[in-house]
Specification:
Elements (H helix, E strand, L loop, with lengths): L1 E4 L7 E4 L1 H15 L5 H43 L6 H8 L10 H25 L6 H22 L7 H11 L9 H20 L17 H24 L5 H9 L7 H27 L4 H18 L4 H19 L6 H24 L14
Antiparallel strand pairs: 1-2
Helix pairs in contact: 1-2, 2-3, 2-7, 2-11, 3-7, 4-5, 4-6, 4-7, 5-6, 5-8, 5-9, 6-9, 8-9, 8-13, 9-13, 10-12, 10-13, 11-12
Length: about 375
């Protein structure tokens, strides 16, 4: 319904298509008409505001519903079977649905298969290494590997969301869960099953004509791809090394925070994304603190995790900071269900790790990439 335009490091803007614009103009004229009784205008105002909201957000509502359903059905099954501890694996599996925004069915399938390959390989690698007690330099080395590989694949194929954030964080989060001496096979099954279900939903979804979505991807030359991958390598290494020197317990937050600003192609964009990251994380922690005051049961927490996925995806490309205010409590809650012993310390580590990672990411990237990066594809999220 709306045309979408986006460059690296900037949020999507949307403008209505001609038919929608004509509707909005006519709607506005009707409300300005002196012949319309004030009482009637006051009664119709909520309806009109809701219609305007639907029009402006329609490009995000459909993908968000698909991603939300991709977690809701497997997540509900886990809640009904009493396996709330596996929700963390299902959440990362449902992220595969975020790669299915292309209106062309075959291209959408290709994008989701590539996204699923990155997510599953990084996540399964983390699951397999979790019994080894992944931390410190080993965690950093694995995070760098998946960040560099994910960045190169995403840039070469023009994947949306771009960047390395989701595979990197999947490896770090799933690789640091306490699972005992053997890998979490049940968690791996939930992870893979949810990812495959998200791909199926992507193929069942219907879109309007491709021209109505304005989705366009341009190929990026290999020198630019390698340059950006090298930036990920240096930035995450420096941020991780500083985190290790300060004995940061949950290093995955620092690595993820360092990766976020790199989606932007210039210094101002990196600062903007970093500010969104910090503000959204702090807002999300505030939401989480308010929720924990209610002392909800595990079942209620599981339902909150499922519900938070919808606004996360709905605002991920429209307002990154607002999306993180939903995504942060979602992530912390699911990790607390998987490991009840982490407690409130996770919130402190999340805030400090993100702050350290963002600051290092902005400063190091400013030194490495002094020239603004030429923009080749849209849809960079991580």
């Amino acid at each position: 319904m709306g045309y979408l335009y986006q460059t690296r490091g900037e949020n999507l803007g949307s403008v209505c298509c001609p038919k929608d614009s004509e509707f909005v103009v006519n709607l506005g004229r009707s409300f300005l008409s002196p012949h319309l009784a004030p009482t009637l205008r006051s009664k119709l105002s909520p309806i009109a505001n809701w219609q305007l909201f639907i029009i402006s957000h329609s490009p995000e509502i459909r993908p968000a519903l698909r991603v939300g359903i991709g977690l809701a059905i497997p997540g509900t099954a886990l809640l009904l079977t009493g396996r709330v501890d596996l929700l963390a694996y299902a959440v990362f599996g449902s992220v595969v649905g975020m790669y299915g925004r292309d209106p062309r069915r075959l291209q959408r399938l290709k994008n989701q298969l590539l996204g699923a390959a990155l997510m599953l390989c990084a996540g399964i690698c983390g699951i397999a290494m979790a019994p080894l007690g992944l931390h410190g330099w080993a965690l950093l080395a694995g995070g760098i590997f998946w960040a560099v590989l994910s960045s190169a694949v995403a840039d070469h194929h023009g994947l949306k969301p771009g960047g390395a954030f989701f595979p990197l964080f999947a490896f770090g989060a799933l690789g640091t869960l306490p699972v005992g001496e053997t890998p979490a096979i049940d968690g791996m099954i939930a992870f893979i099953a949810t990812a495959l279900f998200s791909i199926l939903l992507g193929q069942l979804a219907r879109f309007g004509p491709a021209g109505e979505h304005g989705v366009e991807t341009l190929s990026m030359p290999w020198p630019n791809i390698l340059r950006r991958s090298a930036t990920y390598l240096v930035v995450i290494f420096v941020a991780g090394a500083i985190g290790i020197s300060f004995q940061v317990e949950h290093l995955q937050w620092t690595m993820a925070g360092a990766a976020v600003p790199l989606a932007a192609g210039h210094a101002r964009g990196r600062i903007k994304r970093g500010a969104h990251r910090i503000a959204g994380t702090l807002a999300g922690i505030g939401v989480l603190l308010g929720l924990q005051l209610l002392e909800p049961s595990e079942l209620i927490i599981g339902c909150c995790i499922i519900l938070l996925m919808f606004p996360t995806e709905a605002y991920m490309v429209r307002n990154y900071g607002l999306a993180l205010s939903f995504f942060t409590p979602l992530i912390i809650l699911m990790l607390q269900l998987a490991n009840p012993f982490i407690g409130a310390q996770m919130m402190w580590d999340c805030a400090m790790g993100n702050l350290l990672g963002v600051v290092v990411g902005i400063l190091v990237a400013a030194v490495i990439e002094r020239r603004p990066r030429q923009q080749y594809s849209s849809g960079a999220i991580g």
